[in-house]
Amino acid sequence: MSARIAVICVLAQSLIYGFGDPISKFAFAILPVYPALAGRYIIASLALLIFAGKPLYHKFRQYPVKPLLLPSIAIGLAYLVGNLAISLTAATTVAFLCSLAIVFTPILAFIAYRTPYSWKHLPVLGMMLIGLYCLCGVAENGISSFGLGEVFSLLSGFMIAASLVFGQSAIAKADPLALTATQTFATTIITLIAAAFVPGGYDFSPATPMVWAIVAYLGLACTIGGYLLQNAALEGISSSTVALIQCICPVLTALFSFLILGETLTTIGLIGATLILLCLIAETLLQQK
User: Fold this and answer.
1) Residues 173 and 69: beta-carbon distance below 8 Å
2) Beta-carbon count within 10 A of 29 CB
3) 231-247 burial, b if ≥16 CB within 10 A, otherwise e?
């Protein structure tokens, strides 16, 4: 896969997630988080088994499963601890700390595989962090304390980075569909286990037809589509570049939140969004050199 197509895949994934975030907020107001997550991943797993069961059977016989496990467990834990963090601290704090995956990814790639990271990317990375800090509202609201919610947020960001780094290694031994299926099944199992320990974790009774439609979108588009696009992109560009481009997702989330929920950005938030877009343009130019 060419680098240009890989970038388009990441942008498409960010668009899917950007739309999914505000409609998730609507769904979570009716159906609690853990039943919604359980429903999301059950739908995704069933869809893969129904529509891709036969090719997946042959792929799992052809490819070694062991290399697929690390990125799959990592992405499952990322979603689990990320949602725990939201219940313990401010959502803006969670959004920013999870975005630190752009810092963890090159560090982890170097530790695990000695993947070099050019110094010329560091100014872009620094400006991207400032942009995320402003966009997520942290610059205005501040981080008043550092407790368990903040720890879970950082852990989620690290797990996102691990899913990218180990996912790129797994892609060299398998293909995007096999990795996507393994990640989906692993996340489903982790979510179902976690839901068992939460009161009402399997109570789907509050869900309306609209909520089920949103959960289906999250399962089919965000889980299967999002994972598949990300894994395909890892065939053409590095995990560090994927993590950096994914920073456009909060910008798209802000746009869709304005269109769907009527939420508006502060002046600081607009500055942050502009910085992120400028950094993405700068990174694209650096990749072409």
Assistant:
1) no
2) 10
3) bbbbbbbbbbbbbbbbb
Do residues 3 and 235 touch, judged by C-beta distance below 8 A?
no
Helix (H) or strand (E) holding 67: helix 66-86
Query: Who's near 144: CB < 8 A, 6+ residues apart?
Result: none
CA-nearest of 203, 165, 176 to 78 is 165
CA dist 27 and 212 (Å) reads 8
Of 98, 78, 226, 95, the closest CA to residue 166 belongs to: 78
The pTM of the full predicted model, rounded to 2 decimals, is: 0.91
Q: Token pair 């560091």 is at which residue?
A: 122
DSSP 89: S
Q: What is the mean pLDDT of residues 194-207?
A: 91
Contact 272, 280 (CB under 8 A): no
Q: Check residue 178 and give its pLDDT.
A: 96
What are the sequence ranges of the domains in the chain? 3-288
Digit-coded pLDDT (tens) for 61-89: 999 889 999 999 999 999 889 878 877 77
